[in-house]
């Protein structure tokens, strides 16, 4: 920082001392030696700074990703209806990188540029306050311009990240459903749609490039203006002997120095504003409070939990489709330890009933209770751990069968291999799993040992042997529990203690299967006739 100042002094000394060439050469070479030492130290310090910034940058991005991921997973299910997977993935991967870069590598370069600029300006004032004040008149207009530019850059960066998120969303959905895309031969049109989205990203990037280069042009021009002003005004001051030639030379060097710092500052400022833009959505995600608590509320002791389920005057519509009412004043009671089969036309809300019981959504009106306790007062984490669910398409995680089975347990670490084997036996899957070359170290899953079971029976036709095995496994699973089963098989329905028929946003009929079948005009009877007819049709087709 003080090198140009000394250099200025040396030049003055040369001018005024009249020393011989040898002395001057000797003092100049010792000055060069000193400067070499300073530069070497500077290079080493810079290398250390780059390493530290690189390492801490990676750490910051990792922490930011973990925080955003945790904030996302804590949100209620309705949040995921509104914010799609691809978009959230983009926030996690791309937005965090942009923010990470803007607050690490860039911040370090920026701080260095700030330190250089402050040092340079201080030295300019030290050498010549009047010339420095004159030169720095350029600062206010540049600041106003920078503020306008920064705002624009922030908004463009936000729009770019949003557009990228939409493109990723589209790609994620289409790749995830490649079989459907292929079945309809939609590959080319999907590529067109994706290209349109990326074209928009490109147009935003071009806009950004234009305004960025404009800003850099203006800051570069102002640096040149500063140098010209120093030459002009400084020349006058030197001529009028208010400044020595050495002072003017060192002032000029500081002006160059400040000019270079301004270029560094512009780049830092641009990246910082870009980071703020990309960060807007991340801060929103981090600040978002989930609508339901994840792990707060009452926990019932094992002897308090009998398993009686009750829906009282429940009205519900999905948050993304408020106008489509799924239930209106629905009432339903499942006594503890009994099996209730839920039937109804497609779209009548059978799965929605299960989602409400698991408290994936809250009803708009009415209450859902377990043993007389409103589920809104219960701890949702506890609730879901005490309700076993078996879906038509069980979700499997990419880990071993062993881990998949243990995943549903309250404390997976406490699950022994014997527990896993007996869970597999209950599900009639033991022999099947053991037939794999890697046995329980292969893949597939099932849930714990709960008091309440919510089952979604598979609609797909099974061969006689498998149908028998599934039925047997279900019966064993249902013993001594309260079961609500979305039933499709006549055999399951007949074996249930009671049947609830959903239609027109409510429970249209409820009672024992034989009782309901007795009502010739009833909806249940009609549904069953249709099912029996379909089965006959299928059998005839098979013959
Ligand atoms: N997450 C959701 N967001 C918005 N609407 C939904 C959502 N899930 C389901 N729906 C709608 O709610 C209605 C009831 O759906 P639900 O899946 O509960 O019916 P279902 O009786 O189980 O149907 P199916 O027998 O075809 O599985 C349908 O119109 C469905 O499109």
From TrEMBL:
Domain ABC transmembrane type-1: 1-274
Domain of life from the UniProt record: Eukaryota
Alphabetic keyword roster: ATP-binding, Membrane, Mitochondrion, Mitochondrion inner membrane, Nucleotide-binding, Transit peptide, Transmembrane, Transmembrane helix
Pfam families: ABC_membrane, ABC_tran
All residue ranges annotated as the ABC transporter domain in the record: 309-529
Location of this chain's protein in the cell: Membrane
Keyword Transcription: no
Transmembrane segments: 131-149, 209-231, 251-269
Keyword field contains Transmembrane helix: yes
Annotated CDD domains: ABC_6TM_ABCB10_like
SMART domains: AAA (SM00382)
Gene Ontology MF annotations: ABC-type oligopeptide transporter activity; ATP binding; ATP hydrolysis activity
SUPFAM superfamilies attached to this UniProt entry: ABC transporter transmembrane region, P-loop containing nucleoside triphosphate hydrolases
Topology class, membrane: Multi-pass membrane protein
Main localization, broad class: membrane
GO term, biological process aspect, one: oligopeptide export from mitochondrion
Cellular component, GO annotation: mitochondrial inner membrane
PROSITE patterns on file: ABC_TM1F, ABC_TRANSPORTER_2
Range of residues in the leader sequence: none
Designated name of the protein: ATP binding cassette subfamily B member 10
Organism: Poecilia latipinna
